[in-house]
Amino acid sequence: MNLKPLKGQHHVSAITANAKRNYEFYTKTLGLRLVKKTVNQDDTSVYHLFYADERGNPGTDLTFFEIPNAGNTYHGTNSISATSLRVPTDDSLTYWKNRFAELGVDHDEISNATGRATLAFRDFEGQRLILVSDQNNKGVAGGHPWDKSPVPAEHAVRGLGPVLLTVGQLEATTNILTQVMGFREKGTYNEGDQQVFVYETGEGGTGAEIHLQERADLPVERPGRGSVHHVAFRVENEEELKRWAELLKELRIPNSGFVERYYFRSVYFREPNGILFELATDGPGFEGDEPFESLGEKLSLPPYFEDRREAIEARLKPLDTKE
Can you tell me the distance from the alpha carbon of 291 to that of 148, in angstroms, rounded to the nearest whole number? Predict the structure, then answer.
């Protein structure tokens, strides 16, 4: 089947136990815009918060499900073990290092181990994040920072960068990435004594890379607050997504089939080590039920949930996002 290459990362979805503190960290500390406050469509008692560039352009979304009783994450293999966020230049990392020190954010030193300047840090729940410089990047374009962000535009986050997968069996995941999903091997680097393999798709660059390491010595990760739920990859449109669903079916790879998410359309499946992948369309986007100027300020529900709004709101703890 002749499919177009995947275009890169679409979004990454993670878990928080505290929506209020999560909102404060990702908007006030990291300077992202909350472009959608909605619910998990598979469990409407749970908030689903979307942080992104000014309008939630595909490839810029870092999203969170609030699960108040989520326990600690016990790190291990078969996991999405780090999410990168793109910043414009190497100098931006110095800005962020100083900002993190001033605000008490747990962070490492600036590193060049990947071949690009990076700065690893953790949020208040231990979510593993990495800022990556786009100074020498060639490939998928980044997003456009919100002009009301507390972070200066010249250093603001531009979108998602490489996503690091840690697996118990390298070959199985490599085969899915290269033989099914169309990724190509780009190179390797060493992180400490661990070799990391780099794969890219589409135009390549920071917004279209998966970094993969094998850690057969680790137990399987037990996810909780501060863990990542899934990574989604960009598909041009609904027609192309349905062709991907057909391909997965032909290959007898168990999958969700076509799923309507209103803001985009999706297909979900697990790669052989159990990590959840999603294929998601670039559109329709986040402005179908809210104007650009007030994105994220109210609880948005897809039309098929509107008749249940009162009951849904009654189960959610109020979250003020109009600040």
Answer: 16
Read off the pTM. Answer: 0.97
Is residue 320, in this structure, part of any structural domain at all? no
| Identity of the amino acid at 269 | F
d(CA 9, CA 6): 9
Asked whether 133 and 141 are in contact (CB, 8 A), the reply is no
Distances (CA, A) of 136 to 85, 116, 162, 205, 260: 15, 8, 15, 9, 37
Domain containing residue 241: CATH number? 3.10.180.10
Distance CA 134, CA 154 (A): 12
Residue 118 is part of which domain span? Answer: 9-315
Q: Give me the amino acid identity at 146.
A: W
Instruction: Tell me whether residue 111 is in a domain.
Output: yes
Q: Where are the beta strands (DSSP E) in 54-117?
A: 61-66, 79-87, 107-111
The token pair that represents 317 in the structure block: 């703890």
Helix (H) or strand (E) holding 238: helix 238-250
Q: How many domains does the chain have?
A: 1
Residue 169 domain flag: yes
Q: Are strands 276-284 and 264-270 parallel, antiparallel or unpaired?
A: antiparallel
Asked if pLDDT for residue 185 goes beyond 90, the answer is yes
Q: Which residues, listed in sequence order, are joined to residue 16 by a DSSP beta bridge?
A: 66
Q: How much of the chain is helix, strand and coil, in % rounded to 5?
A: 20, 35, 40
Is there a domain that residue 228 lies in? yes
The radius of gyration of the chain's CA atoms, rounded to the nearest angstrom, is 19
Share of the chain above pLDDT 70, in %: 99
Residue 29, phi then psi, degrees to nearest 5: -85, -50
